[in-house]
UniProtKB/TrEMBL annotation:
Sequence ranges assigned to domain Peptidase S8/S53 in this UniProt record: 181-494
The protein's name: Bacillopeptidase F
InterPro entries: Peptidase_S8/S53_dom, Peptidase_S8/S53_dom_sf, Peptidase_S8/S53_subtilisin, Peptidase_S8_Ser-AS, Peptidase_S8_subtilisin-rel
GO molecular function, one term: serine-type endopeptidase activity
A GO biological-process term: proteolysis
Pfam families attached to this UniProt entry: Peptidase_S8
Organism: Aquicella siphonis
Length: 511
C-alpha cells in the first residue's frame, strides 16, 4: 500500500473527481460524534444538520429552592436564554462569515448548522468555545401492528365514557370529586392536532369563551421545510400558522387526554383541561432538532413568527406534556440529545410524560429517549383494559440508557377509540404505548386540578401515581428483577388508577 492509499484509508485525504487529491475535510477530532463522522465517509457535506454544543452551559440548580411553578419557569427561561445570549455571539459571527444557515437554541446552549461541509466541521471542532458536535438524524414514528382485527371504518357515535376511562377510574373522579382537569393546561408534542375537531375545539386554549380563536402562544410548527424528501409533502404545508395534523397520531393522543364533544363522545380523561400543541414531525418523520424546538416552545411559549430567545413567556407554559415518540440508536441517535431539555423541564416544574415504546416483549426494550431517561419522565407502558394483561408490544425495562426500572406505570393502550382528523372517531388499529401515555397525562391533570399544591412537584406526582397503581405481577423476569416484585420491568408499579390517587389525597375517600 502506497502513501496515497494509506492516507485515503485513514480519511486524511480524499479523491475529488478530476481535481485529484484534496486535503480531507474531516479530521479525527473526539468532539465530533460517530454519526457525523459516518455521514462524511461517503460525502463531503452532512446531508441534514449538526448540533454545535457550546462549552459554557447554564447552571439551573437554584431553581430547586424556588417555591412556585411560575417562579421556577421564569428563572429557568431567563437563566438559559441569558447564557445563550452572552456566549453565542462569536460563534454566530463566525457562521455568518461562512454564509451558512443555522438556528440558535437556548434550552441547551447550542446552534444547529445546516448542511455543513466537513471542512467547516473541522473548524468548529477546533474552537475552544465548542464542546462537541452531534448529529441530527431523521427519526420515524413507529406504531405496532395490532393482533386484533377491527373494521377500518369510522366507529359510530358513543353514548358515554369509553371503557378505558372507566377502567382507570377517571369517571369516578368526575363524579365523586367534581374534577375534570379545570385550570390545567396540557400540551402535545406530536404530528399536530386538528384543532377544530368537535371533541377538541372547546378545550383548545386558543379558543376564547366567545368563540374567537388566537393561535399565538398556543401552537407552533417546528417543521419548517420537508424533512424526508423521498416522501410526499405534508398536507399541512410548512411553518403552518394554524394547528394541523398530517398523520392523525397527534389528534388521537390529544383526544385521549381532553376529548369530549358534549354529544356523547367522551374520550378524554380530563375533558375540562385546556390544550396547546407543537408539531414535531413531517408525515411521521422528525428529528432531535424538531423535538428540542418544541420543548423550547413549551418552556416559554412565543407568538407566531416570534423569537424564542426574546419573545418567550414562561407564564404561558403548559403544566404537562405528552410525548409519544422516540429516537433510537439504529436511526442514529446517541440517546442524550434531548437530555438537557428534559432536565430543564423538570427544573421548571413541567411534567414530561413519555410512552415507553413499542419494541416489546423483550427485556430492556425501553431503548430510546425520552422514556429511557429514568427520573426525568413518567414512562408509561400499555395494557389491554379488557383483560388487564400487558400488551405484547409494550416495551419492557430496565432502561437501556441508565438501567432504571421501567415503565413507571401501565395504562390502556390496545384498540383505543379517540378523535382523528376529519372530525371522526376511530379505534381501528390504534394500539400502542402512544395510546397509553395520554391516559397518564390526563390522570396527572386530574390530580393537579384536585390538589393545586401538587402542581410543579414532579417527583411527588410520579410517586403518587405509582403508589396508587394497582399492583400487577408477571412471570417475566427482566434485568435481574423478578416479575413477582413490585415494581417490575413489565408493568412498573402497576395499572393506572387515578381514582385511587385522588382518593389518597381526600379527606372523604370515595374510590
Amino acid at each position: 500500500m502506497n502513501i496515497k492509499q494509506i492516507l485515503l484509508s485513514l480519511g486524511i485525504i480524499s479523491v475529488m473527481g478530476s481535481q485529484g487529491i484534496q486535503a480531507s475535510t474531516l479530521t479525527l477530532n473526539p468532539k465530533i460524534d460517530k454519526y457525523v463522522q459516518k455521514q462524511l465517509t461517503s460525502r463531503q457535506q452532512v446531508k441534514n444538520s449538526v448540533f454545535v454544543i457550546l462549552t459554557e452551559q447554564a447552571d439551573l440548580s437554584a431553581a430547586d429552592s424556588l417555591a412556585s411553578r411560575e417562579e421556577k419557569g421564569r428563572y429557568v427561561y431567563d437563566t438559559l436564554r441569558n447564557k445563550a445570549l452572552a456566549t453565542q455571539g462569536p460563534l454566530v459571527d463566525f457562521l455568518q462569515s461562512r454564509k451558512v444557515s443555522f438556528r440558535q437554541y437556548y434550552i441547551e446552549n447550542m446552534i444547529a448548522v445546516e448542511n455543513p461541509s466537513a471542512e467547516l466541521i473541522n473548524e468548529l471542532a477546533a474552537r475552544a468555545d465548542v464542546a462537541r458536535i452531534m448529529g441530527n438524524p431523521l427519526v420515524k414514528l413507529k406504531l405496532p401492528k395490532t393482533k386484533n382485527t377491527f373494521s377500518l371504518a369510522s366507529t359510530p357515535s358513543s353514548t358515554g365514557p369509553e371503557q378505558n376511562l372507566v377502567r382507570i377510574g377517571a369517571t369516578k373522579v368526575w363524579e365523586n370529586y367534581k374534577v375534570r382537569g379545570e385550570g390545567i393546561v396540557v400540551a402535545g408534542q406530536d404530528t399536530g392536532v386538528q384543532w377544530d375537531h368537535p371533541a377538541l375545539k372547546r378545550q383548545y386554549r386558543g379558543t376564547s369563551a366567545t368563540g374567537t380563536v388566537d393561535h399565538n402562544y398556543n401552537w407552533h410548527d417546528a417543521i419548517h421545510s420537508q424533512i424526508d424528501t423521498s416522501a410526499k409533502a405534508s398536507v399541512c404545508g410548512y411553518d403552518s400558522k394554524v394547528p394541523c395534523d398530517d398523520v392523525g397520531h397527534g389528534t388521537h393522543t390529544m383526544g385521549t387526554i381532553v376529548g369530549d364533544d358534549g354529544k356523547g363522545n367522551q374520550i378524554g380523561v380530563a375533558p375540562k383541561a385546556q390544550w396547546m400543541a407543537c408539531k414535531n414531525m413531517d408525515n411521521g418523520v422528525g428529528t432531535p432538532a424538531s423535538y428540542i424546538e418544541c420543548f423550547e416552545f413549551f418552556l416559554a411559549p412565543y407568538p407566531l413568527n416570534g423569537n424564542p430567545l426574546k419573545d418567550g413567556d414562561p407564564a404561558k407554559a403548559p403544566h404537562i406534556i405528552n410525548n409519544s415518540w422516540g429516537c433510537t440508536a439504529d436511526e442514529g441517535c446517541k440517546g442524550d440529545e434531548i437530555l438537557p431539555s428534559l432536565k430543564s423541564m423538570k427544573k421548571a416544574g413541567i411534567l414530561v410524560v413519555a410512552s415507553a415504546g413499542n419494541e416489546g416483549p423483550g427485556c430492556a426494550t425501553i431503548d430510546a429517549p425520552p422514556a429511557w431517561h429514568s427520573g426525568l419522565t413518567l414512562a408509561v407502558g400499555a395494557f389491554d383494559h379488557r383483560s388487564d394483561n400487558i400488551a405484547y408490544f409494550s416495551s419492557r425495562g430496565p432502561s437501556a440508557f441508565d438501567g432504571g426500572t421501567g415503565p413507571n406505570i401501565a395504562a390502556p393502550g390496545v384498540s383505543i377509540r379517540s378523535s382523528v382528523p376529519g372530525s371522526r372517531y376511530e379505534s381501528a388499529m390504534w394500539s400502542g404505548t402512544s395510546m397509553a401515555g395520554p391516559h397518564a397525562v390526563g390522570a396527572a391533570a386530574l390530580l393537579w386540578s384536585f390538589n393545586k399544591n401538587l402542581i410543579g412537584n414532579i417527583d411527588q406526582t410520579i410517586s403518587l401515581l405509582e403508589k396508587s397503581a394497582e399492583p400487577k405481577t408477571t412471570r417475566e423476569n427482566c434485568g435481574g428483577l423478578p416479575g413477582s416484585h413490585i415494581p417490575n420491568n413489565t408493568y412498573g408499579s402497576g395499572l393506572l388508577n387515578v381514582a385511587q390517587a385522588v382518593c389518597s389525597m381526600s379527606d372523604h375517600c370515595a374510590a
